[in-house]
Design goal:
heterodimer, A: 163 residues, mainly alpha, 3-stranded antiparallel sheet, 5 helices, 3 strands, 28% helix, globular, disordered N terminus, B: 180 residues, alpha/beta, Rossmann fold, 6-stranded mixed sheet
């Protein structure tokens, strides 16, 4: 069985000219009744104010069009590069290489998205793929159980007081 | 191409456990929510973190060697409200920053956190130490339970922000205890 989704990743350069259109297909969302649908894909960063930072590629091209991650990743889930053995990282897409490089220390999904200028939905798909491939380690609280437990809250409290 | 066979379950880290928790900061536009997420922030070396993804506004606080607290500002614009569900999932709770001059801006956040059962506190944002409205008045105007703490907070001040966060965590703990 092929690695999950890997064969579908399109390195940014290859999509190049085809992806320069300003519009974006974007993911589908269920908007609660009463909310007007957004005029544009909300997961696409606003045109970077600093200039030159916006991607030329349709956001979900790098995920092969997939908008659903292989498993649920919280926005604050921590991600770190695995201690991988000799592995040819040049076969990875530039986006995945960037994630690996950035995650030498623990980083949250939110940070990866913001710092690497990657729409949150795209980051989630890629990170979940990479976790399934053993490229990154992911740590997140099992939120099936609801909210953080008392022990964790105690720890947060004592940490805050020491700030 | 041996990576094709290396599919593994999502790995849980055992040896160097790193836990993250989050607190949501909500407030009508312009009440200083950005400042609150920044006030006690160790992510400030990250350039453009607020401008990159419109819908995301967050700060990061290292609480101990294995514990990081993220503060997420809720997107104010209606078109990003769908993100709120994502933000509150598994959150410790929320701080609703209130500008008493524009109290009505806080109603949607209060309604939302109440209906979601998320522990939250109200932080009256004072400007230059000036809090023109009494806590009791704010409580009545927002029609919230007297059990919900209301604190005064200058979102630009680190200690003030810290005190508000502590009040929220304590409130979240009380709610858990009373639910038992």
């Amino acid at each position: 069985m092929a690695g999950p989704g890997r064969d579908k990743w399109e390195p940014a350069e290859r999509v190049g000219s085809a992806g320069r259109s300003a519009s974006s297909p974007g993911p589908k969302f269920d908007f609660a009744a009463g909310f007007a649908p957004p005029p544009r894909d909300p997961f696409v960063p606003e045109t970077a104010p600093s200039g030159g930072g916006s991607s030329l590629v349709r956001p979900y091209a790098v995920t092969g069009g997939r908008t659903q991650p292989k498993y649920q990743l919280q926005i604050e889930a921590m991600v770190a590069a695995s201690h991988y053995e000799a592995r040819d990282l040049s076969t990875l897409s530039p986006e995945c290489q960037a994630i690996l490089g950035f995650c030498r220390d623990w980083r949250s999904v939110a940070e990866i998205s913001a710092v690497l200028r990657m729409p949150l939905g795209v980051a989630r798909v890629l990170i979940a793929d990479m976790a399934m491939d053993g490229l990154v380690r992911v740590h997140q609280i099992d939120h099936e159980q609801g909210r953080p437990d008392m022990n964790l809250l105690e720890r947060v409290l004592s940490g805050l007081r020491k700030l | 191409m041996d990576f094709a066979s290396s599919k593994v379950a999502p790995p849980e880290v055992a040896e160097t456990a790193m836990t993250s928790v989050k607190i949501v900061v909500a407030g009508g536009f312009g009440v200083g929510k950005t400042t609150a997420s920044d006030g006690v922030d160790d992510l400030s070396h990250t350039p453009d973190k607020k401008t990159t993804t419109v819908a995301m506004d967050f700060g990061r606080l290292t609480l101990d060697a294995g514990l990081i607290l993220y503060l997420f500002g809720t997107p104010g614009q209606h078109r990003f409200w769908f993100m709120w569900d994502d933000l509150i999932l598994g959150a410790i709770g929320a701080v609703v920053l209130v500008d008493t001059r524009r109290l009505a801006d806080s109603f949607p956040a209060v309604d939302y956190f109440e209906s979601a059962g998320l522990p939250f506190i109200v932080a009256i944002n004072g400007f230059d130490g000036d809090y023109p409205h009494a806590v009791a008045d704010v409580q009545e105007a927002l029609s919230i339970s007297p059990r919900i703490p209301i604190v005064q907070c200058d979102a630009r001040n680190r200690n003030s922000t810290k005190a508000a966060l502590i009040a929220l965590v304590e409130h979240a703990m009380e709610m858990q205890l009373s639910a038992r």
